[in-house]
Amino acid sequence: MTTSPRPLAPTSATSPPNDPPRWSPFAALGRFLLDPRAQGAVLTACAALVLFARAGANPLPNYDDAYYAEKAKQMLRTGDWLTPRFAEAIRLDNPPLFLWLMAATFGLAGVTAYAAVFWSALSGVACVALTHRLATRLGCPPFEAWAAGFVLLGTGYFLKYANHAMFDVFLTALFLCALLAYRRAWEGSATAWAALGVFTGLGVLTKSVLGVFPLGVVMVHALWSRRAMRSVREGAWLAPLLAVAVIAPWYGYQLVRHRSQFLEEHIAWLLVQRGTGSGAEAPPLRPFGYLRELAMTYWPWLPLAAVGLWMSAREAFARRGEAADAWDARASARLLVAWPLVVIGVMSLAREKKLWYVMSVFPALAMFSAHALAAWWPKALARARVTLGGFAVATLAGLVLAFTPWGSAPVRRPDLQRMAVAARSLVPPGERIAFLGGNYWSVAHQFVFYSDRTLVRGSDDPATVRAALDRGGWALLSTGAYVLVSAADSTRYPPVDAAGEWVLVRLRPPAGGRD
């Protein structure tokens, strides 16, 4: 039996129903901008352009950058990767993971400022990508996840330290990896709990007890969500166990090989004295010091972060009965609120306060800001325009940084840099240089790294330095110390080079002798 064909529906002469929809480049661009995978890829590319545009453009500054870089250089040159050294002396105040990475980069690319900051810049790129990924995993819509990554990339303080040869941005990347593992562990994965422990252990190997914070945040969140016992049954016990397994070899080696020095430098000085202010004239506690620093520094995002925090806190403290089996908006809000509460709360109890110590909260602040931005621009068209504009701004900023001198930071301590270069060319390798004229540590890091010579921290007695010069040695002196050492006889101890307040000095060669 045959059937008659189904009659066609009435059609319009202008829009035949069987014709495919017209392709619109604006519609395609809008769909692209709201695709989380595309957003993540473009955000990562923009972050790489911005953060590597001027990586290593300036010499490493004194204090932390040059100190860590010198330790890494000594690991490479001595072949002893377990015992950090500075100026020929063992220094056990810092764990070795970041130093290992820096030393490996020195071995591949040479001992340069770029190689020193490479891992910080790469970690900055990773932090932007991981922030976007974590926001997506916490249930944020595509625009909000994009905004979180963009805000972090547009945070001046974060950008600054992503171009320093310091541990903090790398530690922040490990923190984000740990929270992503926890989000996966919530779904019942014992492997994810083990990964959380590994990332925590790597954090401890990066910056000692500051690496433990992911476990603290996770513990508070699990208790708040009434899932502590369930988490233990699902494998949460693996996290601290794996963390200890990661840190035990290096810490155990130091306790066996350098027990007294390790306890004195790493425990007594680094953790106890710097944390509590004991053993010296204690600075004021300033319990709201970090909040004050953020209020002064976290611009232009501070108002948005405050609004986003308030919105997240309302969701976090909402009453909805018992704990949910599946991750929901309240679980995300509680994690975001617990994150800075634990880190800043604990660190506020320490007397030694530096804002980079709490660098790991900057992704959380970026997510708060993104939450407020998403509420501000609820319509899809506006979000697409903002996203396109944000990518354009980030790309333009990266190109400006890469191809123009605009925004270049001035060289810090150019006088000290010049003296280090002069010492490298004038002082024979292996010779030590006596120092007199101020705080040794405010000079030694940069000078030692760039001169490749050992600066000796001697007594404050000019006669001792004069005796070293009489034996054919060299000295780096402040202008005031030079007057005391030369004792008005500058012809006997002529300046070989001078810059700013510093003078490089040696004994005048005998007449007819070679310099």
Describe the structure.
By secondary structure, the protein is mainly alpha-helical. It folds into two domains: 30-403, no CATH class; 414-506, 3-Layer(aba) Sandwich (Rossmann fold). Helix content is 61%, strand content 5%. The protein is built from 22 helices and seven strands. It has helices spanning 25-33, 36-52, 64-78, 97-109, 113-137, 142-153, 156-161, 168-185, 190-207, 213-224, 228-236, 238-257, 259-276, 289-297, 302-316, 329-347, 362-376, 380-403, 414-426, 441-451, 462-470, 479-486, and strands at residues 85-86, 89-90, 432-436, 454-457, 474-478, 495-499, 502-506. Strand 6 (495-499) and strand 7 form a beta hairpin. The longest helix is centred in the N-terminal third of the chain and has 25 residues, at 113-137. The protein is globular, with a radius of gyration of 29 Å.
Task: Please specify the SSE layout and strand pairing.
Blueprint: H1 25-33, H2 36-52, H3 64-78, E1 85-86, E2 89-90, H4 97-109, H5 113-137, H6 142-153, H7 156-161, H8 168-185, H9 190-207, H10 213-224, H11 228-236, H12 238-257, H13 259-276, H14 289-297, H15 302-316, H16 329-347, H17 362-376, H18 380-403, H19 414-426, E3 432-436, H20 441-451, E4 454-457, H21 462-470, E5 474-478, H22 479-486, E6 495-499, E7 502-506
Helix pairs in contact: 2-5, 2-6, 2-18, 3-4, 3-20, 4-5, 5-6, 5-8, 5-17, 6-17, 6-18, 8-9, 8-10, 9-12, 10-16, 12-13, 15-16, 15-17, 16-17, 19-20, 21-22
In short:
With 515 residues, this protein is mainly alpha-helical. It has helices at residues 25-33, 36-52, 64-78, 97-109, 113-137, 142-153, 156-161, 168-185, 190-207, 213-224, 228-236, 238-257, 259-276, 289-297, 302-316, 329-347, 362-376, 380-403, 414-426, 441-451, 462-470, 479-486, and strands at 85-86, 89-90, 432-436, 454-457, 474-478, 495-499, 502-506.
